[in-house]
Specification:
heterodimer, A: 326 residues, mainly alpha, ABC transporter involved in vitamin B12 uptake, BtuC, two-stranded antiparallel sheet, 70% helix, 2% strand, B: 309 residues, alpha/beta, Rossmann fold, six-stranded mixed sheet, globular
Chain lengths: 326, 309
């Protein structure tokens, strides 16, 4: 019971929310348009840093800071997209992966007055927390603190709005052009569509939604640290997307929730099995300290099996995914 | 050229316009839709295309033939902006197309198909067709979420798509994924989709490749009907029966150059064309060809071996 409660907590926490939004952005890039963006962490990071530094160092209003975060993601998309979107898909993957790492290193080593290196940026949540409508007397609800609850309320409403917006977009002729580009961009070009511009729009839109993930993650943790935006972030988001099913509106949402839920449940289960006077798993095989790493192995194994036997993800349509699964 | 063809009035009129055109490479046409000058394209040391001058007559069906590696598809790519030439200038309806992006070329009314068909396999046949329509408001990012802004246009496009699908006998397949179609049906779909763009000039790259004989006949009819609808057709083809049957004018390329032009009958009997493309034994059954060549001691092959397959 405790395991399930912990799993539920992790699966819908503000931390998971930032992954949900990052994975939704990747779904636009990879699932619908076929763009291999391996630097989604970069978009999340610039969103989080632009908002946090804007408030903490320059004392700009909260709403303006959010707009600044969105603007940062748009600019990053333009910088990455202009040179690479005319080239073959692999180049975008290389450039985005490198760019995200460059950004992380800049945040962790440079402009220490603003980015505070590995300490991270903090002290930007005052306005957001002052808007919290939950009564002061309520210190916690279920396993969540009052602050977490407020971040989650905003975050899940945001996820819902983004999903509805994407559903409207993807059923339109605009969405049809994106899906066609994923299939064969030369054919789309021969029918008079400006493929380059559509790819740019998709990169920007997915990047901005990634930046939303940065906002929620930053507000949830009340600090922004460079190392949370390493390459693992992007690959975990990709894993969630494929787990849930690419090119499905709810695929990344379900994938992210299940991923964190499963990760948390497997982790607690392993700890339980390895602890106590007479542990089921002997300490020579795995100590309780190692459980948090071993859980990633188990999750990895589950994902491998999933890719072999159900490559379209849990909710995907085998006939309509970017991965050619036949 | 059988100008007194009694099938329809249009082909004879179209052919009549070309009656006085000299049968030589680069001949000027009375009403050209495409004019190309001095187009060259090299790949490493190979000069793939080197066309001094070529005009394509409006409203007729022009065939572009030549042996494999003659540069036909490369020339197609260059004309439609999918590849950039090293030198040269070319125009469509009087507008220069040098350095114009392929999607803009298509919007001007010059639409191509591909040698290896490019249907969008994970979209339905009907969605493939709808994609072809130009000027869709719903393809704009801002208008897209609001169905009211584009639903009228979408249903008009759907009606037009269904008419075209019915004409190409694909109407029963409209909700199937395009990836489930046979090779011949994909050729049909690609042609029908190109028509959704409302082109003036349709460029077909090997429309008959891999199409079964029964479907071939209906494809021939479709190509002819394009001309009757006032479109200009330029096609690359290896099937000589098709070339003879439907084209008003034939352009022959070999080793990147235009080596001959003329109506199909005169082209088929042109010795240079036969040597370059059809081979001296084009009437010989393939099983007997080896014997014939052996008897001649491969004489012909040694004389102009470069031009052969």
């Amino acid at each position: 019971m405790e395991i399930l409660q912990g799993a539920f907590h992790d699966a819908i926490s503000p931390f998971a929310l930032s992954y949900v939004l990052a994975a939704i952005g990747l779904n636009i890039h990879f699932g619908y348009t076929g763009l291999l963006n391996f630097g989604q962490a970069g978009f999340v990071a610039v969103g989080a840093y632009a908002m946090a530094v804007g408030i903490a160092s320059f004392d700009i209003p909260f709403v303006l800071a959010l707009l600044l975060g969105i603007l940062a993601a748009v600019i990053l998309a333009l910088i990455l997209g202009i040179p690479t979107l005319k080239l073959r898909g692999d180049y975008l993957a290389i450039v985005t992966l490198a760019a995200a790492e460059v950004l992380r290193l800049i945040f962790s080593t440079s402009f220490k007055d603003y980015f505070h290196a590995r300490d991270g940026v903090s002290g930007f949540t005052a306005t957001f927390r002052s808007l919290n409508p939950y009564p002061d007397t309520m210190t916690s609800f279920a396993t969540f603190s009052r602050n977490d609850l407020w971040v989650m309320t905003v975050g899940w409403i945001l996820v819902a709005l983004v999903c509805v917006y994407l559903w409207l977009l993807m059923r339109s002729p605009w969405g049809r052009v994106l899906r066609s580009i994923r299939e064969d961009e030369e054919a789309v070009r021969s029918l008079g569509k400006n493929v380059y511009w559509y790819k740019m729009q998709a990169l920007i839109l997915g990047g901005v939604i990634g930046a939303f993930g940065g906002f929620i993650g930053a507000l949830g943790l009340a600090s922004v640290q460079p190392d949370s935006f390493n390459a693992d972030f992007t690959f975990i988001a990709f894993t969630m997307l494929i787990l849930g099913g690419a090119a499905r509106i709810l695929g990344p949402v379900v994938g992210a929730v299940l991923f964190w839920g499963a990760l948390s449940a497997i982790g607690s289960l392993l700890v339980q099995l390895a602890s106590g006077d007479n542990p089921i798993i002997p300490p020579s095989m795995m100590s309780t300290d190692q459980a948090s790493n071993v859980r990633f192995m188990v999750v990895g194994l589950v994902l491998m099996l999933l890719m072999i036997y159900r490559p379209q993800g849990l909710f995907g349509d085998r006939k309509e995914i970017a991965l050619d699964a036949r | 050229m059988p100008a007194e063809s009694d099938m329809t009035a249009t082909p004879s009129r179209a052919a009549a316009a070309l009656a006085d055109v000299p049968r030589e490479p680069g001949a000027p046409k009375p009403d050209p839709i495409v004019i190309a000058d001095n187009i060259t394209r090299t790949f490493g040391g190979l000069r793939a295309v080197s066309v001094d001058h070529l005009e394509i007559q409006r409203g007729v069906i022009t065939a572009l033939i030549g042996p494999n590696g003659a540069g036909k598809t490369t020339f197609f790519n260059l004309l439609t902006g999918f590849d950039e030439p090293d030198t040269g200038d070319w125009s469509f309806n009087g507008t220069s197309l040098n350095k114009v992006a392929p999607h803009k070329v298509a919007r001007m009314g010059m639409v191509r198909t591909f040698q290896l068909t490019k249907v969008l396999s994970k979209l339905t046949v009907l969605e493939n067709m709808r994609l072809g329509a130009t000027g869709q408001r719903g393809e704009g990012f801002l208008a897209a979420p609001f169905r009211a802004l584009w639903s009228g246009q979408e249903s008009a496009n759907t009606t037009r798509a269904r008419e075209l699908l019915a004409r190409f006998k694909l109407d029963a397949k409209e909700s199937d994924f395009a990836g489930s179609l046979s090779g011949g049906q994909r050729k049909l779909l690609e042609m029908a989709r190109a028509l959704m763009v409302s082109p003036e000039l349709v460029m077909l790259d090997e429309p008959m490749a891999g199409v079964n004989p029964a479907l071939k006949q209906s494809l021939l009819g479709h190509v002819k009907s394009l001309r009757e609808d006032g479109m200009t057709v330029l096609f690359v083809e290896h099937d000589m029966d098709m070339v003879r049957d439907i084209s008003d004018w034939v352009v022959v390329m070999a080793q990147g150059k235009v080596i001959a032009e003329g109506p199909p009958d005169s082209i088929m009997s042109d010795q240079r064309v036969i040597d370059a493309y059809l081979g001296a034994h084009h009437d010989t059954d393939i099983t007997q060809l080896e014997d014939v060549l052996e008897a001649e001691g491969h004489q012909a092959l040694e004389e102009d071996g470069d031009n052969r397959e």
